[in-house]
Design brief:
single chain, 278 residues, alpha/beta, seven-stranded mixed β-sheet, two-stranded antiparallel sheet, 11 helices
Length: 278
């Protein structure tokens, strides 16, 4: 096992920070090759089968091309559930799981909820598991993302209705239809590209990440306008945000007529979630 872990570290250390290399060693050895944690940490000698050798070479080659390990595995963990992911959908982040947990702690029993820009379906499916009695709906403009979301719905046996909707082209639904609307829309500005890692820039869908520098709040204005009409009185809107635009996003929603608008921080201490009440 020592020779295997050394091989992985030598291949990946020039490209990834030490803590990420350590995580990748564990994933490759335990989750993909099937060795136990005891074998990994005791450094026992192992001999790879032909299939294991081929898998190791393939995974290391793809990681060296900066492909995310989640795409290589074809899945990722989110809110205690295993979701299928593939190029074409954004990989769910821990900050988004915080959003789900916050909603679950603050909204006791929504009857009808909507996820705008669902991607892999992670928010909608996780909320449907937390609120099994609720009628859960989710929208996305991407057919590719909706196909992955529907696969996740079947794999996780969730009760979610997925629909193809373009928030900039389609009109809002019936007035007062929802108790809760949630969205994690694109919010990374084009000028922030230079700060991002290659495993994001080269592989994850740009349409799910970026907004123009001169209009960073474009999705929040539109989603806010739609949500103000579609939420019942007292209904809540939760959005994940760019940490640099907490005050601006809150001001935007306040200007649209929402009340009790507040900015919440993530576990890194960054502005990350805005909550607003209709």
């Amino acid at each position: 096992m020592t020779s295997l872990t050394l091989r992985i570290r030598r291949a990946l250390s020039p490209l990834y920070p030490p803590e990420e290399v350590q995580a990748l060693v564990r994933i490759i050895c335990c989750e993909m090759l099937g060795f136990s944690s005891v074998e990994l940490y005791m450094g026992r000698t192992v001999v790879l089968t032909e299939a294991q050798e081929a898998l190791t070479a393939d995974v290391l080659g793809r990681l060296c091309r900066h492909e995310p390990i989640q795409y290589i595995r074809g899945c990722t963990e989110f809110d205690g559930l295993t979701f299928r992911v593939e190029p074409g959908v954004l990989i769910p982040r821990p900050e988004t799981a915080e959003l789900v947990a916050l909603i679950a702690s603050e909204i006791p029993s929504p009857r009808r909820l909507l996820d705008v820009g669902t991607g892999s379906g992670c928010i909608a499916i996780a909320l449907s598991k937390r609120f099994p009695e609720a009628e859960t709906e989710a929208w996305d403009v991407s057919d590719e993302a909706l196909a992955v979301a529907r696969t996740n719905r079947e794999l996780l046996q969730a009760n979610v209705s997925f629909r193809r909707r373009d928030v900039f082209a389609d009109e809002r639904e019936e007035e007062g239809a929802y108790d809760l609307i949630v969205s994690n829309p694109p919010y990374v500005t084009e000028s922030e590209r230079a700060e991002m890692a290659d495993n994001v820039l080269l592989w994850e869908p740009s349409s799910a990440l970026f907004v123009p520098d001169d209009d960073p709040l474009r999705f929040y204005r539109r989603i806010g306008a739609l949500a103000f009409g579609m939420l019942r009185r007292g209904g809540a809107l939760y959005v994940e945000i760019n940490r640099a635009y907490g005050a601006e996003t809150a001001a935007c929603l306040s200007g649209q007529g929402f009340r009790e608008v507040c900015v919440r921080k993530d576990f890194y201490g960054n502005d990350r979630i805005v909550k607003a009440i209709r």
